[in-house]
Amino acid sequence: MAVTPGEETLGSRYRSLRDLVLEELRDQIIERRLAPGERLVERDLAEVLDVSRIVVREAIQQLAAEGMVTVLPRRGAQVAALDPDSALHLFEVRIGLESMAATAAAERRTDVDLARLDRLIVEAQEATRAGDRKRATHLNMEFHEAVVDAAGNPLLGSIFRSLSGRALQLFRIGQDVDAHGLHHEHVELVAVLRAGDAERAGAMMAEHIAGSREGTIERVRQLVAEAEAREARG
């Protein structure tokens, strides 16, 4: 099993255990330490993470709702397989959803929203310069989340968050995208949001997301082919 115990276990930390386990398992999947198709055995995970099986079960159920885990009759839970079609569908939904959010954000954003976006751009650039690709990926996701929050539409935010795990997974897979170009696009988008240009903001967000679509889907195809080749070799 990919999860390994450390000096400090999740059961010893002061936070919601369900949230901590959920965060840990989601991160293991995104980082591919839990590979597509790998079984998630409640008993083993509970022992390694030093939590109850109930907490693990709740986390797995949430991951299943997010589409990151598949629960099969008589076989239990396993990490959901990656496939190019699902990646394409997610990109299509994100383009529609986030362009709508950017349009609304240009009209409703507050100074607090803009300050948050500015801070995330700086932190992401620092993480990229430091070579911390994992942190840069998470900050990229948080930037998109901040744009959705700036739209001031709780329903839109709820829908976006239901997709965020899979979106973060694709961010991680496609992280070889030009970091400088990504930074520049984020800076430009915030400038448009600050100017209140709703139409341009929506178009820019759609272009921004579509820009990484083909490269990410091609990388998913490569990962699927590599997994199939390993399975064929036994």
CATH architecture of the largest domain: Up-down Bundle
Secondary-structure element string: HEHHEEHHHHHHH
Strand runs, count: 3
- CATH topology category name of the largest domain: Four Helix Bundle (Hemerythrin (Met), subunit A)
CATH superfamily of the largest domain: GntR ligand-binding domain-like
Q: What would the principal axes of the Cα set say about the shape?
A: globular
State the helix count: 10
Compute the CA-based radius of gyration. 19 Å
**Strand portion:** under 5%
How is the largest sheet built, in terms of strand order?
1-3-2
Total count of domains:
2
Given the helix and strand composition, which structural class is it?
mainly alpha
DSSP helix fraction:
over 70%
Give start-end ranges of low-pLDDT stretches. 9-14
CATH class of the largest domain: Mainly Alpha
Mean pLDDT: 88
Major β-sheet profile: 3 strands, antiparallel
Span between termini: 18 Å
